[in-house]
Amino acid sequence: GSGFRGGLFFASLFLGALLGKAFADVMLVISPATGIDPAVAAVVGMTSLAVGVVGGPLTMTFLALESTRDLTLTGVVLAASIMSAILVRETFGYSFSTWRFHLRGETIRSAHDVGWMRSLTVGSMMRKDIKTIYASTTLAAFRKEVPLGSAQRVIAVDAGDHYVGVLIVAELHSDPSDGEVPVRDLAKYKDAVLVPSMNVQAAAETFQRAGAEELAVVEDFTDHIVLGLLTEGHLMRRYAEELDKARRDLSGEG
Description:
- This protein is mainly α.
- The protein folds into two domains: 101 residues, no CATH class; 122 residues, Roll (CBS-domain).
- The chain is 54% helix and 10% strand.
- It has eleven helices and five strands.
- The strands form two sheets. The protein has a three-stranded mixed β-sheet. It has a two-stranded antiparallel sheet with strand order 4-5.
- β2 and β3 form a beta hairpin.
- α1 packs antiparallel against α2.
């Protein structure tokens, strides 16, 4: 093979066969009574190492069956491949080839396609029709400008339209504070924001850290220009929909 994928696949098969044969030769010297066939050990070693490096225990098992046409040996190969896959998963977390993808900046964790998690971004889920109010507005003026029931939440911004915090309308209408208090003092989640490029996983982690049910979406972490709003409920609903869609695609229910 040539290139990354082919070269990795060929190398794992070749090294596995060499290690398997070397193991059989060593065992013949140490304990001749074991009677390990070097050819069998080479096939088992080839498939076991390939599963640990590339993955795909069934693929390697069928490759061994195609090469040897021996069902008995294929059963041994399948058992060894499964043990190799479990050992690598429990000790390393994922196959060597998956780790190589991580080094290249990819985020896959297994053979399942999780690319949809990267495409499901905050920018595609946020609401843009948000109401903003200056953070210097007094509580009394806020209650007049935003009557109870007209909105659930309002974004507080400064004079330069930079994010200050989230105002929960119901809470501000029931707050016992003096009417001259600026709403910036009552704003929530001042240090927790989302950016459009965040994927659903990163956004969910931000919600969890902040303990928030809604967060503002800003242009970037430097300027904090408000672009929209995203609620945790909507994020989890979209995540569940995409997860169910991926499951249906995987099972062929389409």
